[in-house]
Predict the structure of Cobalt-zinc-cadmium resistance protein CzcD.
Amino acid sequence: MSKPNESSVKSLNHEHEHEHDHKHDHQHEATHVHNQPGAGHADDHAGHNHSALGGHVHATGTKLKWAFLATFFILAVEVVGGSLANSLALLSDAGHVLTDVAALGLAWFAAVQAQKSPTLDKTFGYHRTGILAALANSLTLIIIAFVILYEAFHRFQNPQPVESTIMYLSAGVGVIVNLAIAFGFRGGEDNLNVRSALLHVLGDAAASAGVIIGAIIMQFTHWYVIDPIISVLIALMIAWNAWKIVKETLHILMEGAPDNFEYDRLLAFVRTLPGAQDIHDLHVWSVTPERVALSCHLIVDPEGSLERSTEIIKQFKQYILKEFGISHSTIELEIDQCGCPGLLCPETLWESGKGAH
């Protein structure tokens, strides 16, 4: 079967929107009702604000573009300054800035990609490009940190004089511009791609501040061993922050649930709903940190009405949106236990012929 082309995707989207305008007054509640006479299929993304998310992504892309250009300017200043000053600390900081340029470039590209509409072969859209960019950026930073440590080891064995004045003037430019970039990123910290880029920028501002302090001390004491010491501190700071982003991105790529999700609280709430009996085959995952999805099977009273079941789903969706920020959910109603015996579905149900439940 060939993949649908762009025109067929737009046509399907138009038909879907047209049908919902007439049948559901713009409500979009994803519900499958099994073994319930007269039950139909309705969709509801209550709490979704796709236009707001789209506007946020566009604003993020603009911020990243200007941050990219400003950081490239810092790179030029610190490469020239580090070469003239013969300072490993300043060149190390320039190496960090080089990764910032790559990081911000990738983040900018990812933000642009995230604005693309979903397709029938990528139904969640392109939001994961930001996660992949954040992972690539962080792994690059860890490699750079080891390179700095290697160079610092040689400088410890043979400390070299540096031009302190050039060091702190060049690093001062880095501090000012990086803080201006970080200020421009305010409000976008929920986006992992932006947060990864922000860590680059703040890390570089802190590193530049350390270079300035070291340059002033060396200017008055001539303790040139301070230069590689600052380099080591910069490298350790880079590696630690990068590793935290690596862990978070891998958790998302492994379809991990967000940290604030509590299964016990959800189960306790479901059992307080009149007509709801239990929940199983539960899946909660993050497409991105700000886009969390949930699917589950919900067992309801077989004697209950379709209207009552619809009300249960409405209350369920309102609860997970308020308590966990989950605005995209698919709930399948049942009156009998399916092949999944527990809260989480066993691996055997994924085997051929056993997963249709």
User: Anything to note?
Assistant: The first strand starts at residue 31 and ends at 33.
